[in-house]
Amino acid sequence: MRTKIVGTVFFLASFVHGISGLNAQNNEVVIQIDTLSDKVYMLTGQGGNIGIYVGEDYVFMIDDQFERLNKKIKAAISTLSNKPIGFLFNTHMHGDHTGGNASFNTLETTVVAHDNVRKRVQEREQKNMEEQKITTAYYKAMLPEVTFSDDITFFEGDETIMAFHVHNAHTDGDALVYFLTNNVLHMGDTYFAGRYPYIDLASGGSVDGLIQTQKKALMVINDETVIIPGHGRPSTKKELQAYVAMLEDIKAKVLKAIASDASIDEVKADASIAASYDASYGVGFIKPDVIRATFYTSLKKGLKLE
Ligand SMILES: [Zn+2]
Q1: What pTM, to 2 d.p., does this model score?
Q2: Residue 17 Cα, ligand 1 centroid: separation in angstroms?
Q3: Which residues surround ligand 1, an ion (CB under 5 A)?
Q4: What b/e readout covers 18-31, taking b as 16+ CB neighbours within 10 angstroms?
Q5: Does the 2-252 domain belong in CATH 3.60.15.10?
Q6: pLDDT above 90 (res 254)
């Protein structure tokens, strides 16, 4: 893998998923490019990892971070290709993956996402429009123009790009995108490399859905596949296997606690549950007590449904 840095920009930093404010500080953001195959690249700046495929006729782009970074991201893409961005695919609705939609949504670019992504982006941006934070034209440009319910396939040159919806994982609108020939899989936020996952229960995410999604990904890929996580560094099948094992171990322990009638506060306070993982996985956006509480809430809800 090759890494290069393109340009710099200064602005106020904000947290992943667009939560800004209190801890904002001056930060230098660089757009870093990782070369994953002959034609597929990963761009990292701030927010979700961007996937770029340079095809024969057009560029296929996955996710777009924040609006304020759009010029920087476009400059980085132009170092890879001058072809138009034919499609911009949103892996899910969160603002650090769809924030740049309006800036990239030109006549030559079609924005594609799962049905629920359009619904949730619509809700969020409608509110912004009502509060006069954005114009009607901007609102319209933020919305995916083509949606799908189960899967959608793109054929470009010798590449087949398969996008498929996975149920109630990180949100209720997640999709994985697999580049068959280049053997690269973009998992969106259904996989945070090296960090505890963020499972957005309020937007339809669930522990079981996330684990099932990762197992589904393992069935699609092989030892040579490069995985683009929603956040974190490019990964291998082996690393994803270890990650699933970690999630299943925590799930088993939290289920045991639920079976012995532990309350959410007890589980939240019980550092022994995932102690062996906390030092490596619990130092990111999602802290150890948060992951324990998320597992408890999601699994308890699952038990009630049975
Ligand atoms: Zn997300």
Answers
A1: 0.90
A2: 6
A3: 94, 189
A4: eeeeeeeeeeebeb
A5: yes
A6: yes
